[in-house]
């Protein structure tokens, strides 16, 4: 992340704040959530909400750490594949990034999104700006975030970087997403962003997490693999379709074989 890119993000956030907030409130109303409270177990909450919209959510360790999640829709059914080979903090953000695309993307197209831990905040076109702004506002609600910022800044004795890391730990969010949220809300005493804050690497974050006794687990990947469950589900549906004479055994066998081939390619096995 460089300072010019950060300025563009800040400018977009300022210009589109009200629109994004309205969408966050709309989504929370749809999901039966309180838009003023932070969300901890993101996937548990949003999985049934996305299912109502016709999207199946599953996790697979993808052999590409540039991708946080993939979303695809065809034939009335949608799929969101979460990359479980990324740290938990990145996965949480990626999920809510995809929620924006499912509910609010204005252009019909396939898309791929990513959410990096430190330096890969995904901004490629306006829909990506909008999705990231939405995710940050949903997962780090303003009033709640302001209160926790003050609390952790006091605990950090005014150390801005330690405050950001404690917020990162509390909200289980990527470093850059928390940094951006702090400056979006004008919380640091100075609008100046130290260059060191923009160039921090993963190992530096990890070391400081250990020194501050924070939860290092959010920096690690759990590599959950839902493919066996997905394969079983497809086979069960396939058996029902065979009984209904919609497909035959050969068709089901081809589908399952193609699924396994694609799975091996995605996983890099």
Could you explain the architecture of this structure?
- The chain is of the alpha+beta class and 269 residues long.
- 33% of the residues are buried.
- Residues 108-121 have low confidence and may be disordered.
- The chain starts with a helix and ends with a helix.
- It has a four-stranded mixed beta sheet.
- The chain has eleven helices and four strands.
Order of helices and strands, N to C? HHEEEHEHHHHHHHH
β-strand percent reads 5-15%
Structural class by secondary-structure content: alpha+beta
- Total number of helices: 11
Strand order of the largest sheet: 1-3-2-4
Helix content: 55-70%
- Our measurement of the CA-to-CA distance between the termini, rounded to an integer number of angstroms, reads 32 Å
Mean pLDDT across every amino acid position: 87
Radius of gyration: 20 Å
Uncertain runs with pLDDT below 50, 5 residues or more? 108-121
Mass-distribution shape: elongated
- Largest sheet entry: 4 strands, mixed
Number of strands: 4
